[in-house]
């Protein structure tokens, strides 16, 4: 059995170059190449499973200047101080990844 991939964290920055954080991404790249990612959705004011949107920020060269890697501790501080939320614990993130994959979401859950 392979060990699970480690969860990594990225701050998402505004496009104006000011370095202002607008969101956070918590992600895990699987050995199979699939991305499992949860991000802070500004419009929803909630953590959502969103690998499609996260992959743009993480892998599109046009967005490389819009992200900054963080440790979990730094991500927790940014979540609280800047976004006004709590970063989900790693067990919750893993549950969110599993639910998103099971439901086939690329950006979800769907709004009610």
Strand content: 25-35%
Contiguous helical run count: 3
The helicity comes to: 25-40%
Global morphology? globular
- The number of E-state strands comes to 5
Biggest sheet details: 5 strands, antiparallel
- What spatial order of strands do you see in the largest sheet? 4-3-2-1-5
**Element order: H for helix, E for strand:** EEEEHEHH
Distance between the termini: 38 Å
What Rg is obtained from the alpha carbons, in whole angstroms?
Answer: 13 Å
Mean pLDDT level:
90
Question: What low-confidence regions span 5 or more consecutive residues with pLDDT below 50?
Answer: none
Structural class label: alpha+beta
Would you write up a description of this structure?
By secondary structure, the protein is an alpha+beta fold. The protein has helices at residues 51-59, 72-83, 90-103; strands at residues 8-13, 21-29, 35-41, 46-49, 67-70. It has a five-stranded antiparallel beta sheet with strand order 4-3-2-1-5, with helices on both faces. A hairpin with a 4-residue loop joins strand 3 and strand 4. It is globular. The N and C termini lie far apart (38 Å). The model has no long low-confidence stretch (mean pLDDT 90).
